Amino acid sequence: MKLLFVHQNFPGQYLHLARHLSAIPGNEIVFITQRQDAALPGVRNLVYRPHRKVTPNQHHYLADTEAGLLNAQAVARIALDLKASGFIPDVMLGHNGWGEIWFLKDVFPHTPLIGYFEFFYRFLGADVGFDPDEPGIFDTAPRVRTKNLGNLIGLDAADFGQTPTLWQKSLYPAAYQPKLQVTHEGIDTGLVVPDADARIQLADAGIALSREDEVVTYVARNLEPYRGFHSLMRSLPAILEQRPHAHVIIVGGDEVSYGHHLPPGQTHKRQMLAELGAALDRTRVHFLGKVPYSTYLKVLQVSSVHVYLTFPFVLSWSMLEAMSAGCLLVASRTAPVEEVVRDGENGFLVDFHSPSEIAARVVDVLAAGRAGYAHIRQNARRTVVEQYDLKTICLPEQLRLLERVMGR
After folding, report:
1. In terms of DSSP bridges, do strands 247-253 and 348-350 run parallel, antiparallel, or are they unpaired?
2. 401, 162 contact by CB (below 8 A)
3. CATH: 3.30.40.10, 3.40.50.1390, 3.30.430.20, 3.40.50.2000. Which one for 199-387?
4. Are 115 and 68 in contact (CB under 8 A)?
5. Residue-wise pLDDT tens digits, 176-231
């Protein structure tokens, strides 16, 4: 079988599927991406670059659409070269978010295309307007509507669609929802497990923390408002005051993945440290930045309480991995989280906008000790094993989708 994958950040959501398929003798896997620094055994990577940058000073509604078109053209050129070389895929899979899949059917019209659809932008009911400090201006609604041009192009181009959660599917127009199958990419619950002997070395403080310590953890790709970084930071003075032996480990970069970009030289971390000043005991707050996956797992495994906060937006892998690692989760009462977490059963839900409520719940968990809510930790892991396990649930679902698409 010949398969063509497309994702600018190789391998993205296709790590487990591509690894599984490439291990099957006789399969030929080609992956079109922008990344040059990663590889998987048995997968041939082809790197593309858009031939120019987005036109400056054009209408700001259209910048994302033009960026998608440039990516789509570059991917199509590589696909044409593949076709000329004799490579005709049996099935194509690609993330729609950056336009890369828009023209694949024009190159391979008889090959089925499965698009990965992550988020349909809404003026009401999702991330827009969730921040009470966001200015309410009329321009927002037309801009958000126009931002979905790429979604609509991809939905029309793809034969089938995959989306990771029911809530994310619900954001898409009703006319397209029958095309979308809810299939999460999966959590390796055999790898992401509780570890009673886990320890994390903190170079900045010259100490090592284990499960015997009080450790509050927080993880995000980048430290920014969409993932509740400001609410977490504002909760820390109260937590540290009431729990004098607690330490806080924060994992994440200083870039902006979602929302408005900051002026040059500014970061949300720098802003929050300036705001909190002396109220924050910096000797017990440890910023690790971006870390290797093995270090990230150790952070989860030593955690006494893990804080996960998000706008009504794409659900992070890190929340499910924290649950799989047996973390006691304190998470935002927002739609993507509520699809998984039931308050008081497999985690605790708090108001995203209330640092005082976040602090009170974290302090309660720390005061109870690791044994205090052991049943909630167990239920959290059980939820992921029973609903999101890679090998028994999610990968088989993805393979069944492939079989369906290929008419087998």
Report:
1. unpaired
2. yes
3. 3.40.50.2000
4. no
5. 999 999 999 999 999 999 999 999 999 877 899 999 999 999 999 999 999 999 99
Reported as type and span, the H/E element at residue 167 is: helix 166-170
Please, are residues 310 and 336 in contact by the beta-carbon 8 Å criterion? yes
pLDDT attached to residue 408: 56
Q: What is the phi/psi pair of residue 42, to 5°?
A: 80, 5
pLDDT in tens, 44-100: 999 999 999 999 999 999 999 999 999 999 999 999 999 999 999 999 999 999 999
* Average pLDDT over every residue of 230-258: 96
What does the chain come to in residues?
A: 408
- What pLDDT is stored for residue 261 in this prediction? 79
Alpha-carbon Rg for the chain in angstroms: 22
The pair of structure tokens assigned to 287 is 């910023």
Q: Distance between CA atoms of 61 and 148, rounded to whole angstroms?
A: 10
Relative to beta strand 199-202, strand 207-210 is antiparallel
Domain coordinates in residue numbering, the chain: 2-186+389-405, 199-387
Q: How far is CA 39 from CA 2, 10, 239, 294, 360, in A?
A: 18, 8, 42, 18, 45
pLDDT tens sequence across 156-176: 999 999 999 999 999 999 999
Any idea what the Cα angle at residue 171 is, between residues 166 and 173, rounded to 5°? Answer: 115
Q: What is the DSSP letter of 340?
A: T
Phi, psi values for residue 369, rounded to 5°: 75, 170
pLDDT band at 265 (very low <50, low <70, confident <90, very high): confident
Q: Is 390 helix (H, G, I), strand (E, B) or coil?
A: helix
Give Cβ neighbours of residue 150 (< 8 Å, ≥ 6 apart): 64, 65, 68, 96, 97, 99, 102
Run of H or E residues at 274: helix 268-276
